[in-house]
Design brief:
By secondary structure, this protein is mainly beta. It has two domains: about 10-245, Sulfite Oxidase, Chain A, domain 2, CATH 3.90.420.10; about 250-350, Immunoglobulin-like (Sandwich). Helices cover about 5% and strands about 40% of the residues. Strand 25 (about 300) and strand 26 (about 310-315) form a beta hairpin. It starts with 12 loop residues before the first strand and ends in a 10-residue tail after the last strand.
Length: about 350
Amino acid sequence: MGTDTKFSTSHLTDVEDRDGHERRACLGLDPEGFFVRYPPPPHELTTFITSDSQLFHTIHMGGAIVDFDKYTIIIDGLVKNPLSISFSQLKQLPSKTITAFHECYGSPLKPPTTNVWRIGNLNWTGVPLKQIFEFAQPLSEAKFVWSDGLDYGSFGGVTADRYQKDLPIEKAMSDEVMLAYEMNGEPLSRKRGGPVRLVVPGWFGTNMVKWICRISLQPERSKGLFTTKFYNELDPRSSLGEIRPVWGVEPNLMIVCPAQGVKVKRGEVEIWGWAWSEDGVVNVEILLSEEMKWRKAKVEPREGFSWQRFSCSVTIKRGTYHLMARATSALGQQQPISDRRNHCHAVEFEVEAPMFYPETF
């Protein structure tokens, strides 16, 4: 939702100090160092919007403690008008709310062969980044947008003075990318990156810089540790072993029902779950045990960049079943069966014959 607040460049302060004074807003770190809170198992993620208590939580180098009186976001680099924006000034700008899945890529220290399902679906509220750029006026030489967080420290045995990521300017200028200060209608908590974090719907969470303090437009990619050493992977589409950055999310899903190992006391089984992709999911198929044919599930439309519910009802006899599901995105990309971080999800469950059913059930 937008606001009627008038806002002009006169409310913004020109950048006079280029020595990193924005980083003085960080009073320290809590927690210090790497922190992860794993999500609940898929069968517990039953709501369309994921609560904060059920959302995975990852901090790379420590959680910044922010002095609001000193907090500011610098916009500089290849722009006509370098700017400094305070939190109160940012909130005067017209805002919008977008629903988007939020997925963690997983550890960049391990091969991307395990599907971690660190995923949730959230409502973000904030100011579109391209609206800020209307004031800053990027120059034609600007090709990438670097973003700095207030956090610092060590990760994976390497030390960095900041968490820095980058976006191609085309993505940064898209309608969905924003400086968010609310999550699910509540002020963004400090441990979630508040007061402000970058939100890049459709891309992995590693690109969504927490405690954002500087946005710099540059002619090339960042040379920071989190763009060079970490969060790059072999491109599975390349026969030459080319490396690509961890940016857009490929099709993925998880089966919510039936849960792994559950015993079902009726032959009609409702299968459902969540599917997601940067470009949206248009098809989900399921495969039961040794069946030779994939069954097509119903896929609900996407809201913004949200995950999408899929469902399929099947009537089956008593026994133990192996269930697999796979998603296909709008651009025709299909989940791999195995050995990738987004490979198909599979569960086993059992159909029991209730006492009042004959053995031939």
